[in-house]
Amino acid sequence: MSSSPLNVAIIGMGTVGSGVAKILLNRAEQMTARAGRPIHLKRAVVRDLSRTRDINLPAGVLTDDVESVINDSTIEVVLQLVGGIDPAYDIMLRVLESGKDVITANKALLCEKGELVFQRAKELGRCICFEAAVAGGVPLIETVTQAMTANQIISIEAILNGTSNYILTEMFSHNTSYADAVRTAQEIGYAEADPAMDVDGTDAAQKLGILVQLALGVKVNLDQFLRQGIDSLSLADLQYADELGYTVKLLAVAKLLDGQLEMHAQPTLIRNDNPLAHVEDAYNKIALEGDAVGKVWLSGMGAGQMATASAVVANLIDVAVGRAAITFPRLNLWNSSQNIQILPREDISRRYFLRLNVEDRPHVLADITNVLGNHEISIASLVQHEAPEVDETENYPIVPLVIMTHRTTEGQFQAASRELDALDCIRAPFVRMPVND
């Protein structure tokens, strides 16, 4: 065991950064045993020194000067735990160029700039580790890039956003509204003050993009595949899905079909006998299918301070013992040489759930089925609960109508949806979700 400490710095002392610092400071002896040398937290960079934090750092560690990290040649590893692209991209490049290895949890940066930063790291003889960027505490990146390397991964079906999964669980389990579930998620630290990227599907889509890059060698931009969030759903949608034998989850999917890649990240109806339907709270669950091993399941906490910090520290141990220096330059993680085309979204084939708010009057159902029939969409089931009788002189009441279709294409479905939107018997909101059978 080397007696010289490994000096590290954290840039970004938010939720995850504070969790990492807790592990390094509170479990120092255990980390030393696993790393083969002491790990010394030398700097922690923040934007606001006056902000109250839930951890007491040793004197001299906390700073607002990122240059004190970049210019310190004794710091060997930087845990870059700031989000977004700017200034994170510039900071990462400068850290690498200063001769330091990088560990990050920034999926947005990797999704957009991964090829550039990986190439620069290789040119400089440095490494980038990012286990925490995709599924919180779940060892998904290591599984895809190392444990399953004997396989061609042909399918990914995953719940990758712990915040959205917690919100959906809270809504259904406690019969609460979307807004109230979001507030609860914020109060316990699963959702940010602005939860937009979690609830609009961006976070799950970015993570899916990273997985596709690693598993299939395909660079995919977010605008190339369907992305939809949970922010348009209500408790009624979850209850109707349950009545039909399904659970709603924000599901990220990538499948190889006849040489093309089907991709989408959307709230989806999943049959209740599917293991993905039973993932609750902030947990993630991922089904990877390899052509040799078959289906592999991974599950664990996908949000929260210590779960994500766990993955960051695991990467730090990899760097400390020298594993990362061996594997990073040889795995060719950001190779985009595969000539796999994205299946056009209009050609995606599946079933759909529709919830329409309609006037309870004659001929409404005929109007709706006529639109669907004109686009060759067949109805598998229909649910309309009995409405109270009203006097003929009163306005027609608005009632929910739930339709499950047979298999159709996204192109046909979208064309029908535009015509349904134009019907004067339908009131907003008009909820549409795919079905995963």
UniProtKB/TrEMBL annotation:
Pathway: Amino-acid biosynthesis; L-methionine biosynthesis via de novo pathway; L-homoserine from L-aspartate: step 3/3; Amino-acid biosynthesis; L-threonine biosynthesis; L-threonine from L-aspartate: step 3/5. NADP(+) binds at I11, G12, M13, G14, T15, V16, G17, S18. Keywords: Amino-acid biosynthesis, Methionine biosynthesis, NADP, Oxidoreductase, Threonine biosynthesis. Its EC number is 1.1.1.3. L-homoserine binds at E192. Residues 353-434 form the ACT domain. The active site is at K207 (proton donor). It catalyses: L-homoserine + NADP(+) = L-aspartate 4-semialdehyde + NADPH + H(+). GO terms for molecular function: homoserine dehydrogenase activity; NADP binding. One of its GO terms (biological process) is threonine biosynthetic process. InterPro entries: ACT-like_dom_sf (IPR045865), ACT_dom (IPR002912), Asp/hSer_DH_NAD-bd (IPR005106), HDH (IPR016204), HDH_cat (IPR001342), HDH_CS (IPR019811), NAD(P)-bd_dom_sf (IPR036291). It is an enzyme of class 1 (oxidoreductase). NADPH binds at K107. Transmembrane segments: none annotated. Belongs to the homoserine dehydrogenase family. PANTHER family: HOMOSERINE DEHYDROGENASE. This is Homoserine dehydrogenase. The gene is hom.
